[in-house]
Design the sequence.
């Protein structure tokens, strides 16, 4: 079955350019011109990856991303965002919301295709976890992208979920910030170490009373308390 890509952009020419080139690369491509339509198609057709423009007529790309990440059924959907902005702060905001990668306009169709393939390759190469992971009051199901704390379901972004899986897979082991960036974002993504700290802060807030299980090792990184 062909890998399904959903492209959301309100510029007809660019939408057709992206659709054509991804189809030429062997992907099954579906398109939407508004954020609401994109969210509806994502929920109904479950694509393997979303290519999302940051500037849309109804919802911003960041708002679409926020809604996707807050939906338990779609939270793990990889997102590649298209933007005309190149400032580092814009990329950081996107990464903090759970965007997997950025492509800045204007871009070459070949670059876009390669980045899509790289994201899909990383997501498929993530270690398979056949069993539910349990540590104290935290229960993590990597296959279903579900997390429970004290029996209550909590919504995590894709990056928050991957960080927690990484830490819980080796309780007591200290992971340097650089290691976490490489494991969760991939070595070809340029983000700052501050991104890790921001994600950890939000992850701890969501874990509530279990937040103390994630320990900061000053000057090094983080570990999950054994």
Sequence:
């Amino acid at each position: 079955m062909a890998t399904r890509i959903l492209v959301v952009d309100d510029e007809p020419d660019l939408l057709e350019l992206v659709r054509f080139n991804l189809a030429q690369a062997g992907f099954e491509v579906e398109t939407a011109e508004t954020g609401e339509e994109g969210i509806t198609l994502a929920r109904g057709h479950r694509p393997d990856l979303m290519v999302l423009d940051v500037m849309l007529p109804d919802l911003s790309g960041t708002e679409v991303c926020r809604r996707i990440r807050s939906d338990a059924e779609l939270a793990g959907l990889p997102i590649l965002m298209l933007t005309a902005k190149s400032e580092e702060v814009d990329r950081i905001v996107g990464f903090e919301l759970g965007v997997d990668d950025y492509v800045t306009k204007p871009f070459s169709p070949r670059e876009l295709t390669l980045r899509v393939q790289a994201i899909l390759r990383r997501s498929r190469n993530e270690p398979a976890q056949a069993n539910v992971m349990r540590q104290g009051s935290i229960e993590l199901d990597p296959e279903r992208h579900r997390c429970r704390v004290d029996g209550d379901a909590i919504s995590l972004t894709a990056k928050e979920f991957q960080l927690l899986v990484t830490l819980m897979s080796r309780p007591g082991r200290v992971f340097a910030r650089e290691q976490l960036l490489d494991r969760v974002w991939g070595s070809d993504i340029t983000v700052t170490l501050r991104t890790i700290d921001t994600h950890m802060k939000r992850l701890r807030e969501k874990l509530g009373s279990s937040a103390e299980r994630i320990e900061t090792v000053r000057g090094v990184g983080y570990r999950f308390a054994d």
Q: What stands out?
A: Residues 4-124 form a domain with the Rossmann fold fold (CATH 3.40.50.2300).
